[in-house]
């Protein structure tokens, strides 16, 4: 059987990390695409030379021509501009919307059967716009945010309780922004509800609130520390988990920005929800019971996403 083909649109910090991870895991042959000339070719050459040392077989190429992504099975999109200190994800809207238009067309014309994972911010609006511009079915276009946001939440919980991160199952819903909804009632430490674990370990409710707050601002904390650009290791590894679920038909339940129609009281919106990923792409959205406070927090978050979609429609009349 021929190797799978993975196209990475945007070969910057996340794109390069994605290529390295995908190659190490021998997920398939990799094409790095970017508008910057020479850069994807240079990264491809550099990464190819890891092969003999790390012992992976993967053909890695760099390109500035969309024709080279033809027939890709998975496309991961990071093209665009990342945040600088002081910028919100929403500040990126105008610039990255134009980028989504060219990327969407590139995908439509060259690999319309691919499973597409968008990472470009502001995520929930960009994945929606990318789907609109590409014309692919909704189940084949998904956004990466929840896997990362829950990994951040899980990391902070593991540190607080001084337990292995492997035993933490943290749950985050909603848009990828400061209004995201870390859901304590569905977060567990090896099956023990976080609130029960907090009592056992003597962790106060205020401290749990601080962890929720830190999770919400987790991306901004890294932007502030880096001083130039945003997080890339964990965002890349999160998208790889989603691509593996698709390629392996694993039916994993992962928090993703998926198209939600009818569930959670939503009518045609991309937002972070527990999603089953298998060979059919996003095969199902799991609707969980929420408490009143969680419901109203989710509403604030989805209202913020809806506002961004309206802004996109104002910027590009073809989306209206
Ligand atoms: P960066 O290292 O700047 O890479 C972006 C690449 O996109 C650059 O190499 C650009 O040359 C390239 N590019 C720009 N315009 C185009 C175009 N029209 N076509 C093809 N390539 C283009 O950024 P990064 O890799 O650090 O981040 C990429 C995106 O991911 C940004 O929008 C970030 O805000 C976003 N991001 C999202 C998350 C989520 O959790 C959703 C986390 C971290 C970063």
Automatic annotation (TrEMBL):
Lactate/malate dehydrogenase N-terminal domain mapped to chain residues: 5-143
Sequence positions that bind NAD(+): 10-15, 34, 96, 119-121
Cleaved signal peptide residues: none
GO terms assigned for molecular function: L-malate dehydrogenase (NAD+) activity
Reaction catalysis annotation: (S)-malate + NAD(+) = oxaloacetate + NADH + H(+)
InterPro entries: L-lactate/malate_DH, Lactate/malate_DH_C, Lactate/malate_DH_N, Lactate_DH/Glyco_Ohase_4_C, Malate_DH_type3, NAD(P)-bd_dom_sf
CDD domains in the cross-refs: LDH-like_MDH
Positions that bind substrate: 83, 89, 121, 152
Domain Lactate/malate dehydrogenase C-terminal: 148-305
EC number(s) per entry: 1.1.1.37
UniProt-annotated catalytic positions: 176
Keywords: NAD, Oxidoreductase, Tricarboxylic acid cycle
Sequence similarity: Belongs to the LDH/MDH superfamily. MDH type 3 family.
Alphabetical list of NCBIfam families matching this protein: MalateDH_bact, PRK06223.1
HAMAP family hit by this protein: Malate_dehydrog_3 (MF_00487)
Described purpose of this protein according to its UniProt entry: Catalyzes the reversible oxidation of malate to oxaloacetate.
Official protein name in the record: Malate dehydrogenase
Native source species: Qipengyuania pacifica
